[in-house]
Design a protein that fits this description.
- The protein has about 170 residues and is an all-beta fold.
- It is about 0% helix and about 60% strand.
- It has a ten-stranded antiparallel β-barrel.
- It is globular and about 55 Å long.
- It starts with 20 loop residues before the first strand and ends with a strand.
- The chain binds protoporphyrin IX containing FE (HEM).
- Protoporphyrin IX containing FE binds next to β1, β2, β4, β9 and β10.
- It catalyses: peroxynitrite = nitrate.
- Its EC number is 5.99.-.-.
- Its cofactor is heme b.
- Keywords: Heme, Iron, Isomerase, Metal-binding.
Length: about 170
């Protein structure tokens, strides 16, 4: 008998269902220590029937005409729902987001999904001996007019927590 693989959405993931799929769009990156730039981004959230989402993001520097110049930040990780959907304060759902970066960081975010909005803060950041000084971050993801908007504030290079990147993405599947 072949093993039947279920790809039904596990019940704990229902509050995150709106993320699932592929997204593509553009954003802006900046920080007091770097030059502002425009980037393109492709993001995928997927699941295989188990109660977590897999996540990947790739970005590219864009020139003034919007053409890809070279790869920028890429990150990959997993979204988990540790508790009962709707059990967090205000009827939200607790989420955990584990993330790895080729720039020498791994991080764990904790936060809440409330309808079309997710708020996250870093609970833990670790970095390799050669990575830049990055200590904490805050992220927000939101579904706005069917687009995925996200913003990232970070504390790094001796600077207080402040905006580093944001983007607006359209669903491609
Ligand atoms: C879409 C997301 C992101 C984009 C497009 C992006 C892009 C950039 C660019 C272009 C720079 C300046 C040049 C360079 O060092 O490569 C930079 C610097 C930096 N980024 Fe990001 N980044 C993103 C996300 C992140 C995340 C998630 C973190 C932390 C985990 C991070 C941490 C840093 C740090 C620490 C610097 C160094 C700043 C400095 O050297 O003064 N970035 N980023």
């Amino acid at each position: 008998m072949p093993i039947e693989l279920s790809t039904d959405l596990p019940q704990p993931l229902v509050p995150l269902a709106w993320l699932i799929g592929r997204w593509e769009g553009a954003g802006v990156v900046g920080y007091p220590t770097i030059e502002e730039a425009n980037f393109g981004q492709e993001v995928e959230f997927s699941h295989d029937g188990r109660p977590f989402l897999s996540y990947t993001s790739r970005t590219w520097l864009l020139d003034a005409e919007g053409a890809k110049v070279r790869p920028l930040a890429t990150e990959t990780g997993f979204w988990r729902v540790p508790g009962q959907p709707g059990a967090a304060e205000g009827g939200g759902t607790e989420v955990e987001f584990l993330l790895a970066h080729p720039t020498g960081f791994v991080e764990i975010y904790v936060g809440t999904v409330n309808g079309p909005r997710i708020d996250l803060i870093t609970d833990l950041v670790a970095r390799t001996a050669t990575a830049k000084e990055y200590t904490s971050a805050k992220r927000m993801y939101g579904l706005v007019e069917s687009d995925l908007l996200w913003v990232l504030d970070m504390a790094a290079m001796g600077q207080p927590l402040q905006s580093h990147a944001s983007a607006r993405l359209k669903r491609t599947s």
